[in-house]
């Protein structure tokens, strides 16, 4: 690694929703000395002129002498097959390939890039855009302690990080925390619709649903109490919350729906690996 955990040289492949959010975090935290970006749609306008960022059309178009400490792979899994072979010339002990792609396994990267590839497979989520992401990461056998520390710093620049050894867990991780923000946004939509069905005007219902979910999320974030205790604190015996929870916590309530949803996403993550 050329620059310690501050001042690393990065190559970002794919600067869309996730890659762009992570890049913003690296620039704000100072973890990167320079980020070369390969993005099919071109460098986002906000980054043009940033002295720490340069655009490249492909791995053969990097600034002279630029050997990245980390190549962050942030293209869609379906794009990876055609894009990844071009990056074989960058494989070496000093360069980590850090993937955020759903379903793409360490074995896949080792097969496509070559056995010598240093690989970290990870799964972040979109709250990374406000520094509140949750990422789970797994290293392959070639990742050194310094490289783990560097990848940890990159991922920590956009939120919390958990390192695991069992790669198989990344499928349910993807289903829970990777896709999870979408479930929460759907909850807001569903609560607003339910409020409307109970007589609220649409705009007030959406305002209340949004404020309630984001406020409850922040309370959960700041409180040391378990989620179940925070739930009980809202619930008066025989009150309104209890009436709703009798529906939501029934045998055919929220739990079986969420269990089925997360099982479906876990299956899909496994399918993407085929
Ligand atoms: N959106 C999400 O919530 C999460 C996404 N991911 C993973 O992140 C990856 C990216 O997803 P998003 O950011 O949502 O997609 P996106 O579509 O917003 O970003 C992908 C970017 O890659 C660019 N691109 C396409 N082909 C390219 C190529 N050959 N070279 C360079 N750039 C190319 C596209 O123009 C696009 O800007 C996916 O693999 C996904 O599984 C992981 C966690 C959460
Ligand atoms: O939907 C997807 O496949 C990606 C992975 C996790 C979140 N979005």
TrEMBL record:
The keyword Nucleotide-binding does not apply. One of its GO terms (biological process) is L-proline biosynthetic process. Keywords: Amino-acid biosynthesis, Cytoplasm, NADP, Oxidoreductase, Proline biosynthesis. It holds the Pfam family F420_oxidored. Gene3D superfamilies: NAD(P)-binding Rossmann-like Domain (3.40.50.720), ProC C-terminal domain-like (1.10.3730.10). Its EC number is 1.5.1.2. The keyword Amino-acid biosynthesis applies. GO terms for molecular function: pyrroline-5-carboxylate reductase activity. Signal peptide: none annotated. Its main location: cytoplasm. It catalyses: L-proline + NAD(+) = (S)-1-pyrroline-5-carboxylate + NADH + 2 H(+); L-proline + NADP(+) = (S)-1-pyrroline-5-carboxylate + NADPH + 2 H(+). NADP(+) binds at residues 74-77. Pathway: Amino-acid biosynthesis; L-proline biosynthesis; L-proline from L-glutamate 5-semialdehyde: step 1/1. Residues 12-103 form the Pyrroline-5-carboxylate reductase catalytic N-terminal domain. Catalyzes the reduction of 1-pyrroline-5-carboxylate (PCA) to L-proline. This is Pyrroline-5-carboxylate reductase. It comes from Azospirillum griseum.
